[in-house]
Specification:
The protein is mainly α. The protein is 68% helix and 3% strand. Helix 1 packs antiparallel against helix 16.
Length: 363
């Protein structure tokens, strides 16, 4: 197992290095850098002024050199300022510190992620705050989505072909086929609109005091999470994700229920509930476990639509802002986080296989 973990971690590091270089290359194309210069220095500057701005900010070096600077394995760039001083990547990290104490290398390995041109703040601070916000959203989505999806899948798979199976399978397919931007808009119209939907009726009946039942804007959840400002984004994401997990669980449960040891247990007179809970459920959870682990990187990167729709400033909303405003440093940091989350969840999934099914051994 230790050798397996060492090999997997080595492959993870190589994969992360390759993927981050691809993202670095795409975000540092000449057209992107020109757009960044015009965004920061003025949209009407000339080509010569663009070249001067890029040279003054360290973007005129070869691609591999700048990638090494970003990683922190190559000394950071330096340049002279208009007043005869010195500036550079490491000087930006040090701020107003004594130039004699400025480090030679300052990149990812040294804990420096750069500065966000969109939020005018260190990228590490922006990512940490936004990850915390999305972490709460992911936690509540998993709490709602996973038990509901497993319950639907197990109930549908216990008795294949029954009326319950057909009804729950139809619900699972419908939820998966409905995109978040559709279900989110429907939820807002039905539950968070003061003009249409359920809220006007509840106001007229005197059931609620406010104009709407739920809040369609989740920005207030950053300060304090309540059921009324957090339910709609959680329901929107959970509804879309649970259908796929439920279908995989149903297929796995159906296959397990036809195994010989299940038939033997039934012939011995074991109750149906005991068979499902003690014999079938653990083996049926092997395939859904992988799908559930895959939902974590999807939740981190796939909540862009929901967070923008409900104005929730989490990781997905920040990624959208960085892409829309050509914030290169923030895009790179977000890509590192996304790659690490995907690789780590895959490693946990492989380890979970052995725990769920002792017959699986690491070769």
């Amino acid at each position: 197992m230790l050798l397996f973990l060492a090999r997997r971690i080595g492959v993870m590091l190589v994969t992360a290095l390759c993927l981050t270089f691809v993202v670095f290359y795409l975000t540092n194309l000449p057209a992107k850098l020109e757009t960044l210069a015009k965004t920061q220095a003025g949209s009407r500057i000339s080509d010569a002024e663009v070249a001067t701005w890029l040279a003054r900010n360290g973007y005129n070096q070869p691609m591999l050199m700048r990638y090494g600077e970003w990683l922190g394995v190559v000394p950071g760039w330096t340049a002279e300022t208009a007043d005869g001083g010195i500036t550079g990547r490491c000087y930006q990290m040090a701020g107003h510190a004594d130039p004699q104490t400025v480090a030679v290398r300052c990149g990812l390995l040294q804990g420096y992620w750069g500065n966000s041109t969109r939020f005018r703040a260190p990228v590490s601070d922006v990512i940490a705050a936004r990850l915390g916000a999305t972490g709460w959203l992911m936690l509540w989505v998993l709490i709602v989505m996973v038990p509901m999806a497993l319950a639907v899948g197990v109930l549908a798979g216990m008795r294949e072909g029954s009326r319950m199976d057909r009804s729950l399978s139809t619900f699972a397919i419908a939820s998966t086929a409905t995109p978040e931007y559709v279900s989110g808009v429907v939820f807002i119209a039905l539950l968070a609109s003061s003009a249409v939907g359920l809220s006007p009726l509840l106001v007229s009946w005197g059931v609620i005091d406010g104009p709407v039942l739920f809040q369609g804007n989740a920005r207030s959840a950053i300060e304090k999470i309540t059921f009324w400002n957090f339910a709609l984004p959680v329901m929107t994401i959970a509804l879309y994700g649970m259908g796929y997990i439920a279908r995989i669980t149903r297929a796995s449960m159906t296959e397990v229920m036809t195994q010989q040891y299940i038939r033997t247990a039934r012939l011995k007179g074991v109750s149906f509930g005991t068979i499902v809970l003690r014999h079938a459920l653990r083996n049926a959870l092997i395939a859904p476990f992988t799908v559930i682990m895959l939902q974590i990187p999807w939740l981190l990167n796939g909540v862009v639509i929901v967070e923008v729709l409900f104005s929730y400033p989490g990781f997905g909303w920040t990624l959208f802002e960085a892409a829309a405003n050509n914030d290169i440093e923030l895009l790179l940091a977000a890509s590192v986080v996304a790659v690490l989350v995907v690789l780590i969840t895959q490693l946990i999934s492989d380890i979970g296989y052995v725990w769920l099914n002792p017959r699986i051994r690491v070769a």
